[in-house]
TrEMBL record:
GO terms for biological process: nucleoside metabolic process. This is Purine and uridine phosphorylase. The lineage of its organism: Eukaryota, Fungi, Dikarya, Ascomycota, Pezizomycotina. It comes from the Eukaryota. It holds the Pfam family PNP_UDP_1. GO terms for molecular function: catalytic activity. It comes from Aulographum hederae CBS 113979. Coiled coil: none annotated. PANTHER family: AAA+ ATPASE DOMAIN-CONTAINING PROTEIN-RELATED, ATP/GTP-BINDING PROTEIN-RELATED. Residues 17-140 form the Nucleoside phosphorylase domain.
Length: 371
């Protein structure tokens, strides 16, 4: 690998082939902290006339990367931002949507055993499903999944690369490098807030268990809330589980711990490959999460991948910060953002180097001239 001090500054924007797209400042901060070289410290590369995107440029390993700071969350912001990338960075051939997501706590692929997904684990997309594209009928909602509505498969280069790193040898290398990158990142003073929150903070509630005042008589509105269609009070929506009493009496059943053979906390984040749901609806229902995930065989839910997908060849790399239920909070967001960024650095360590034109091979019978 080229040492950062030996890295040559790109002569222009055409030498950037990797774009990293982040919606939240926490996500972008973690990615930028992994830059081996920050090209903007010398002078920014700028942008094309009419391009309103905000960029940061740097180098991760052997790759020059452009970090795209989206205006906000959601597919519209992601589509708008990613559509402009090629105006300024014409040779980008890979877009990585990096950050946090809501995870499906139990997954089962075909012909595989059931697996548990924990907070802080990583999901890498092999495909993206827009779960919020639905047709409403009187008695049900049906997801639009025709050829016209569905997102295409990743391109051949991405599919081949994902097949490679899913293999045991390369996946072990991916995990080991991710762990090294994460240790390096969390060792920085400015990232102390991103440290592992602890096993005791990884709490999974039953799918039907609502985030509301749990004490009988504590709130008239919440006392009448018995299913997903019933309202909770405004105070409950803005309160923590501790204040509402969600954990009281259930903590022994809810705290999740990994197998002891995975080591002491902080555990090594596990990496899962599969389909990810993308939409502008924030999933905050355990029941809806499980229904949609089962229907489309999803590992997680996020809000930007579907917007980027048709504009730039895309891989989504996100870490689980909640379980996409009504109890979701921000306690794990900083750690998950750091994990996702670390996995991105590990991913790029194995991604093929920049495309370069090679000298033509001599014709048979001809010798190469002496220099």
């Amino acid at each position: 690998m080229v040492e950062p001090t030996q890295a040559r500054r790109p002569s222009n924007r055409n030498e950037f082939e990797i774009a990293i797209i982040c919606a939240l400042s926490e996500e972008a901060d973690a990615v930028k902290a992994l830059f081996d070289v920050d090209w903007d410290l010398d002078r920014p590369f700028g942008r094309a006339t009419g391009d309103t995107n905000i960029y940061s440029t740097g180098r991760i390993g052997i790759h020059n990367v452009v970090l795209v700071h989206l205006a906000g969350m959601g597919k519209i912001n992601a589509a708008s931002g990613s559509a402009r990338i090629l105006c300024s960075y014409e040779n980008v051939r890979l877009g990585l949507v990096v950050g946090i997501c809501g995870g499906v706590p139990t997954i089962k692929a075909k012909k595989e055993v059931e697996k548990e997904v924990f907070l802080g684990d990583i999901v890498i997309s092999t495909g993206v499903v827009q779960y919020d594209l639905v047709r409403k009928f009187p008695n049900k909602a049906v997801t639009k999944d025709t050829l016209e509505d569905a997102l295409s498969r990743p391109n051949l280069e991405i599919r081949a690369f994902l097949q490679k790193i899913k293999g045991s040898t390369d996946q072990d290398r991916l995990k080991n490098t991710c762990r090294t990158q994460l240790t390096k990142l969390l060792g920085k003073q400015s990232f102390q807030k991103c440290r592992y929150p602890g096993d005791d903070k990884d709490i999974l509630f039953p799918p039907a268990y609502r985030h509301k005042h749990q004490q009988p008589g504590g709130c008239d509105t919440c006392s009448r809330c018995n299913n997903d269609d019933d309202d909770t009070c405004d105070d409950a929506r803005d309160s923590t589980c501790e204040v509402l009493g969600c954990v009281a009496g259930l903590s022994n059943e809810l705290t999740r711990r990994r197998d002891t053979n995975l080591g002491q906390p902080p555990p090594e984040p596990q990496i899962y490959f599969g389909r990810i749901g993308s939409g502008d609806w924030v999933i905050k229902s355990g029941r809806d999460r499980d229904i949609i995930a089962k229907e489309h065989q999803l590992l997680a839910f996020e809000m930007e991948g579907g917007g980027v997908w048709d504009n730039v060849p895309t891989v989504v790399i996100k870490a689980v910060c909640d379980y996409a239920d009504s109890h979701k909070n921000k306690a794990w967001q900083n750690y998950a953002a750091a994990v996702a960024a670390s996995c991105t650095g590990a991913f790029l360590q194995q991604w093929p180097g920049p495309n370069k034109s090679l000298p033509a091979r001599p014709s048979p019978g001809k010798s190469l001239p002496f220099p």
